[in-house]
């Protein structure tokens, strides 16, 4: 029993604790009981108990207890902690018993312990860092003035330090649904490259051997490879086998020569995969000297996806890639950047040095689908049976100085995507022929929004118009048959800024589509320059070069509208129809015979608004009351009447009116008007038109356009509810 039971912690030098320890050790060594209680009220084996249980000497008992505990831990991992506690208790009991007849002596090292000899027989010497046993904490018993080994107090640490040490340590996440695993299995989920590199990671020393070993191990285990951030880059000196068959994580950077590969790139970082005609599937593509082949580069991108952060480039070396057909993996870019597939840089409009050649027997050159957002730059696509480039799906495709030749469709975009084409020559050679009824240099269809002759700014998401010298050039090889420079079809819409010639149709717009042909465009030497089919919209800006009056003018017509009056072009002379003003405010004119301006200045004509001819159309609606006199409606330019319409005094009620004027040149106009009033009767109205003032040089001054109402009888009234002004030409 313990007399004082102070509860003081181990190491106490209180006389009461020393008394209790002495009393307890006396009972442990000399008593007949098999167990005894220490001063913390814990049951311990006595000397008699140890002899009864093990029947071996003190040292053998301690070693066997530790060994049995280790074996039990390996066999029953879930009970490892309990087993180790039992071993520790038995060991401490044995040492306590051994020390009962002697004193404890402490030494820092084994050499220090030897230096303390001679010591009394039976003393116990504890060594803090035993250099003979890997720095373990050990105890020895003095016998015959020598140190006899008693026990290694660090058996658990030694066991954990073994290659399979992590196997005896349990791991379980805090969630109630988590299962228990050992630390070795948990660690094998991922592998750190640092586990294999034994050279300094200082940005200078090669780490190639360790990198290759780490990648091979991760591939064999099917585990992710972690690249922790280090002070210097990981240095690779040659291709890393299997690199793209392993998933990589972490913030490290690999450097080979001047090329750097970011394991987890940020927005400011760039990763480049290098491709060459001589590239190998087994290469890693991290530097120009270890290029991949093109298809292996696509597989590498997929392994890095499905979402890519930062700037990613697939760089094609110069050369001819014969019979190559690429389908881009369905990956997304995390930020504003586009996935860039590029050839060697060349001046804009120059023929690229990286050529993908279908040899006439390959259907597609490059296909982008899904959510691909890409820039294809400085690539030459030739002799593909269907498409040089085809984009399909809700992606964005920016073709920058891409050239196509002798493909049935040079560039095609379809199914909801955004198509940008900047620069490039897209042509058919004289020897090209196809069994297909139609060919297209550029095709936009199925809800695609196109910007042809525009670059794409990936920072702002805005289109930037090409200057005239960088407009895409579309060249055909015949003005007959089904050849088309560009076709917009089935709800395609957008701007076109091109130089197109030598086709049956330079630009063809059909099936509910829209094209806005920009002012710099050149459309000549075709059979028909622009054809607009029924139900479509073509806005053709002034200053389009149709080669008017020269041998380059389009053979049949410059602009043709087919299929009925339901096209936007309700008048044949209109090259452009644009609503330039709308006023939905209610305005009442009454109580005066003075002409009254309604809606202020509706629009100001500028010098460039008309080329050779043009027109204005004013549409309005409202109501007329009172039969005291006529009501006159006038379109005014610089205080001069351009055209008028008169409602007779006998007509009252709701009305709809249109005033149209065609301007040929200064002093030469044609005009007309119509209105419907009351219960639906149609009245031609009265109209008149005047020449613009001859003292205004045509097109040199701005001309404000306004609308006036004049009552013959002040007792009558006119209410204007809606005004629209359209500019034509």
Automatic annotation (TrEMBL):
Entry superkingdom: Bacteria
Coiled-coil residue windows: 59-93
Alphabetized UniProt keyword annotations: Coiled coil
Protein known as: Pectate lyase superfamily protein domain-containing protein
Organism: Alcaligenes aquatilis
């Amino acid at each position: 029993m313990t007399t004082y039971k102070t509860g003081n912690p181990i190491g106490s030098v209180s006389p009461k604790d020393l008394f209790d320890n002495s009393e307890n050790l006396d009972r442990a060594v000399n008593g007949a009981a098999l167990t005894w209680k220490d001063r913390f009220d814990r049951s311990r084996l006595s000397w008699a108990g140890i002899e009864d249980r093990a029947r071996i000497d003190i040292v053998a008992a301690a070693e066997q207890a530790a060994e049995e505990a280790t074996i039990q831990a390996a066999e029953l991992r879930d009970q490892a902690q309990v087993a180790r506690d039992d071993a520790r208790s038995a060991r401490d009991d044995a040492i306590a018993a051994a020390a009962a007849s002697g004193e404890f002596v402490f030494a820092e090292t084994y050499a220090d312990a030897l230096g303390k000899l001679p010591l009394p027989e039976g003393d116990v010497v504890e060594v803090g860092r035993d250099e003979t046993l890997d720095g373990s904490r050990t105890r020895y018993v003095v016998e015959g003035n020598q140190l006899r080994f008693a026990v290694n107090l660090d058996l658990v640490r030694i066991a954990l330090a073994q290659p399979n040490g992590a196997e005896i340590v349990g791991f379980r996440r805090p969630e109630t649904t988590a299962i228990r695993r050992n630390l070795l299995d948990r660690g094998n989920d991922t592998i750190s490259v640092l586990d294999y590199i034994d050279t300094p990671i200082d940005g200078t020393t090669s780490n190639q051997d360790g990198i290759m070993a780490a990648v091979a191990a991760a591939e064999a285990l099917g585990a992710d490879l972690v690249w922790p951030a280090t002070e210097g880059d990981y240095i690779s000196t040659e291709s890393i086998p299997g690199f793209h068959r392993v998933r990589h994580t972490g913030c490290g950077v690999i450097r080979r020569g001047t090329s750097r590969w970011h394991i987890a790139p940020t927005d400011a970082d760039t990763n480049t995969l290098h491709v060459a005609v001589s590239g190998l599937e087994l290469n890693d593509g991290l530097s120009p000297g270890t290029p991949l082949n093109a298809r292996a580069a696509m597989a590498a991108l997929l392994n890095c996806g499905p979402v890519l952060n930062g700037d990613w480039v697939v760089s094609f070396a110069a050369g001819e890639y014969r019979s190559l057909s690429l389908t881009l993996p369905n990956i997304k870019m995390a930020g504003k950047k586009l996935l860039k597939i590029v050839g060697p840089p060349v001046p804009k409009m120059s023929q690229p040095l990286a050529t993908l050649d279908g040899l006439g027997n390959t259907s597609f050159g490059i296909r982008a689908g899904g959510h691909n957002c890409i820039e294809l730059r400085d690539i030459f696509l030739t002799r593909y049976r269907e498409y040089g480039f085809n984009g399909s799906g809700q992606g964005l495709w920016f073709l920058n100085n891409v050239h196509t030749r002798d493909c049935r469709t040079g560039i095609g975009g379809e199914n909801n995507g955004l198509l940008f084409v900047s620069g490039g020559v897209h042509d058919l050679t004289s020897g090209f022929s196809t069994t297909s009824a139609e060919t297209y240099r550029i095709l936009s269809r199925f809800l695609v929004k196109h910007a042809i002759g525009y670059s794409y700014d990936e920072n702002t998401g805005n289109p930037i118009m090409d200057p005239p010298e960088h407009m895409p050039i579309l060249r055909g090889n015949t003005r007959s048959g089904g050849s088309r420079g560009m076709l917009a079809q089935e709800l395609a819409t957008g701007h076109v800024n091109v130089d197109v010639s030598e086709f049956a149709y330079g630009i063809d717009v059909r099936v509910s589509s829209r094209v806005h042909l920009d002012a710099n465009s050149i459309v000549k030497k075709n059979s028909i320059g622009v054809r607009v089919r029924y139900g479509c919209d073509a806005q053709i800006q002034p200053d389009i070069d149709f080669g008017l009056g020269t041998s380059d003018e389009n053979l049949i017509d410059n602009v043709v509208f087919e299929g009925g009056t339901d096209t936007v072009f309700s008048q044949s002379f209109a090259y452009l129809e644009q609503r330039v003003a709308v006023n939905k405010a209610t305005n009442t004119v009454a109580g005066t015979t003075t002409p009254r301006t309604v809606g202020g200045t509706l629009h100001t004509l500028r010098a460039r608004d008309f080329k050779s001819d043009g027109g204005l159309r004013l549409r309005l609606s409202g109501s007329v009351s009172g039969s005291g006199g006529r009501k006159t409606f006038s379109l005014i330019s610089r205080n001069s009447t351009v055209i008028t319409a008169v409602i007779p005094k006998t007509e009252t009620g709701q009305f709809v009116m249109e005033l149209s004027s065609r301007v040929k040149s200064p002093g030469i106009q044609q005009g007309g008007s119509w209105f419907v009033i009351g219960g639906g009767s149609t009245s031609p109205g009265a109209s008149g038109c005047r020449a613009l003032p001859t003292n205004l040089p045509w097109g040199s001054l701005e001309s404000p356009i306004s609308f006036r109402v004049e009552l013959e009888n002040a007792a009558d009234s006119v209410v204007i509810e809606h005004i629209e002004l359209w500019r034509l030409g």
